[in-house]
Amino acid sequence: xxxxxxxxxxxxxxxxxxxxxxxxxxxxxxxxxxxxxxxxxxxxxxxxxxxxxxxxxxxxxxxxxxxxxxxxxxxxxxxxxxxxxxxxxxxxxxxxxxxxxxxxxxxxxxxxxxxxxxxxxxxxxxxxxxxxxxxxxxxxxxxxxxxxxxxxxxxxxxxxxxxxxxxxxxxxxxxxxxxxxxxxxxxxxxxxxxxxxxxxxxxxxxxxxxxxxxxxxxxxxxxxxxxxxxxxxxxxxxxxxxxxxxxxxxxxxxxxxxxxxxxxxxxxxxxxxxxxxxxxxxxxxxxxxxxxxxxxxxxxxxxxxxxxxxxx
Length: 312
Known about the structure:
Elements: H1 4-20, H2 31-44, E1 52-59, E2 62-69, E3 72-77, E4 83-88, H3 103-117, E5 125-135, E6 139-150, E7 153-164, E8 170-177, H4 190-200, E9 207-217, E10 225-234, E11 245-251, E12 257-262, E13 277-278, H5 286-291, H6 298-308
Antiparallel strand pairs: 1-2, 2-3, 3-4, 4-8, 5-6, 5-13, 6-7, 7-8, 9-10, 10-11, 11-12
Helix pairs in contact: 2-3
């Protein structure tokens, strides 16, 4: 199965790099910051004390309004007023008892947040992973991770929401939804990509865990979009368990390996709360994906809705 934990981590790293790209140019309120504050309050169902406001930020690849306050930060897309990033640090609390929320209740809260933001969680969005993590002594959360697929091809988009397992408050939220700018065409088959990786790592009899197509950037954004074969192989003859699992990305048209490394070995089986874990991914149908219309982004849909509204 695809190592989505690592992919999720890479998405968080990309999100962090986006934070570094924010360039504050103003600390005063304006119409844009007022609208951004209203958007955050609507999504989170509460008002916040913002001590710094900036309209000159770039939360890649879109321009954002940046808001910061005591233990809270947010980005709001300047063009559509859609919330793209939110962090809130929890206060102290007793975590000795079991969490107050079930995973189902937390998912209901996460979905309600997305609806208030203006995101409809239906195809091509797909919930791919649900986890429960404890951070320190006073912070435990349910994490929900969505991605977009077009007939099994992973699009350059993700949604990441964490819900406090005790209070039900939103602790973090991140949205990335880029338009697809390249044709979905692959000269290499999955078998050819697997062979390239196996030869590079000198794996005589690879066990194929997964081979999926995804669209991302090479080099990393703002490099051009590229279609990749993402390959996960097992080397049964590796001397140590930590060396068995190989994760690679191969340019689906040139055969160039753009990522090659060891994937985390499978975690020992343990009892988990019902509803947690990785979810099934859609099967790949490359021919159908080639012919299909590219689904609009969240931002494109918001602009369409704005254009349909009558003028004041």
